[in-house]
Amino acid sequence: MTRTLLFEMRRGEAGKVALLSAVAGIWYLTSEDTATSDWIGWWNQTNIKVQIFGVIVMGSLMSAAAAWTASRARRTRANAWTDTTPRGGWPQAVLLWAAAWLWSLLVYAVMAAVAHQRTAAVSEVTEPVWSPLLLGAAMTAFQIAAGVAAGTLLPSRITAPAMGALWYLIFVAFAFFPDLPLARLFPAVDEHWDTTFQPNTGRLLLATLWCTAAALTLLALPALLRRAPLSPGPLAAVPITVAAVAAGAGLMTLHAPAGEPFWAVRAEQPAQPACVTEGRTRACLWPDDRHLLPQARTAARTVERALGPVAGFHRDFAQTGLRTSGPNSAELPVYRPVVDSAAMTGAMLTAAIPQRPNGCQPPMLAEIGGYPDAFLLEAAVNARAKVPSPYYGDKFGEAVQRILAAPPAAQDRWLTAAADAVGDCRPVPPPPR
């Protein structure tokens, strides 16, 4: 059996398609720049990236290759000979399926290794999550089994490209309707999981069971429909079919809370966030993001230098997902796994500005060209931190310069008064003259 499997792996088209998928996948995973990537550095997103490429691109191509290989015997009119082999219809289908799936698993492992190496080079946390990868491998098995079944039952030259196009259209269609229960039976998980989320392992493993059982059930279908010898017998397909039906029904009946992803759950608050402190300024990150502590320290140092003894500003920052610790605390958004010091500083300075109460309409200052008064406060803080601000015109720039030209004590008094005014829904005082 092993020798026959290796022979089929060498002879079939799946090896060539797998090589093409490997080249495309490695390019896909290595071409992104670390500074702009939304996955390099977060293990959740790393495995989602591998899984979604493996399912949508490689799975569709391998399904088409499996359909072409499975239809070869009847296209070349050799089915009379192949049907006389000692193996029944089901083992023959399993052999073709295994030959293609093993190629896809090899490519899948290479892609996972490349992606993990890129994230490990950034993140100090070496704890990959495996359930999304297991689901991707099982879904690829399901796609290849569908290709084998289609190629056996519809032995036409058009079947192979039709299978590849069909899978792609399925994923495109369900991308527009992700909340449809039927979409869960074709899982190409394309959700953004930052470090505040963790995989819903139970649902991912249930989907893995569904894909695996459905694949084995599909492989028995051609022999049943063609009335070929099934071997090891029709009863062997019953428990596998029951498992597929039960797992699929379970997936379709599960629900996620409103606004929450289906395949992930929110992570519990960490007992020990990763924090840095500079004077009165503190910034805390998720433990999995502690590779950003040097950037957070630089940003906190800049904020501390810019605000000094000024009161009324937020000086305690908690990354999105962490609980804020009081009126002096603010949310610090971190949208990418890799953030340079300049971007972190800009985000922290913006978070330091107090927010107006809900329902408060921001006053427009004629002295700065009719812009909201909080713009002037933010520009003054950025200027003290030597961080660029948007250009709103000459009148606005002159107002900022009047603030910077005042003595340090006068600047501090104006910033404190302006911060209190914004927090109390009052207009900020005019710039010092």
Can you characterise this structure?
With 433 residues, the chain is of the alpha/beta class. Helix content is 57%, strand content 6%. The longest helix is centred in the N-terminal third of the chain and has 32 residues, at 89-120. The mean pLDDT is 88. The chain crosses the membrane at residues 12-30, 50-70, 94-114, 134-154, 166-184, 204-225, 237-256.
What are the secondary-structure elements, in order, as H or E?
HHHHHHHHEHHEEEHEEHEEHHH
Number of domains: 3
Which residues sit in consecutive blocks of at least 5 with pLDDT less than 50?
none
Q: What is the count of β-strands?
A: 8
Structural class assignment: alpha/beta
Strand arrangement within the widest β-sheet reads 3-4-5-6
Keywords: Membrane, Transmembrane, Transmembrane helix
InterPro entries: DUF7224
Protein name: DUF7224 domain-containing protein
Pfam families: DUF7224
